[in-house]
Amino acid sequence: MTDMKKDELAEDQAQINDPLALDGMDAEIEALRAERDEFRDRYMRALADAENIRKRGERDRREAEQYGGSKLARDLLTVYDNLRRALDTAADAEQAENSATKALIEGVELTLRELLSTFNRHGMKPVNPQNGDAFDPQLHQAMFEAPLPGTKAGDIIQVMTEGFMLHDRLLRPAQVGVSSTPKS
Q1: What is residue 112's predicted lDDT score, i.e. its pLDDT?
Q2: pLDDT lower than 50: segments of the chain
């Protein structure tokens, strides 16, 4: 063994026998344990933050997938409304006597059905209240109030446009007229 290693061993042996040196080592060990605990705490917090970020990203991705097209869907509702008005006008006018008009009306009906089928495939469901249903401010927008005999206050008396839900969110409320007749 070299003289240097012998000196180091003698010094280590002297520290072991020295009670003051042992106190210093205990203090150093405690400091190292405290530092270890601090690093473990930081690590666990970083792990929790990473998990929260992953969950938030997954939720954002899911919402973007479900509701990302809501602006386009809202714009397509005017197409739906116009097709519905065209059919209502044709039915009211009863001009379906000649074959060309019949074919046109049938084409508009098929287009409207296809549009509704597409809406349904993408999670859009119509909110179609009926006359006499109770007004629900979560689903309906009151366009006017009018007294109507035989109805209760808050009953729907006219539906002007259908509303639509996109999955579980209201895309457009149904526009309705509401009775203002006091309850009897």
Answers
A1: 93
A2: 184
CA-closest candidate to residue 145, choices 176, 169, 173 = 176
Please state the pTM of the whole predicted model. Answer: 0.65
CA dist 21 and 124 (Å) reads: 77
Closest CA to 80 of 172, 176, 178, 181: 172
Distance in angstroms (rounded) separating the CA atoms of residues 162 and 75: 14
**How far is residue 2's CA from residue 123's CA, in Å, rounded to a whole number?**
83
The CATH number, out of the four listed (1.10.230.10, 2.30.110.10, 3.40.50.720, 2.30.22.10), of the domain defined by the range 125-184: 2.30.22.10
Count Cα atoms within 13 angstroms, Cβ side, for 19: 0
What order of strands is seen across the sheet that includes strand 169-172?
124-127, 163-166, 169-172
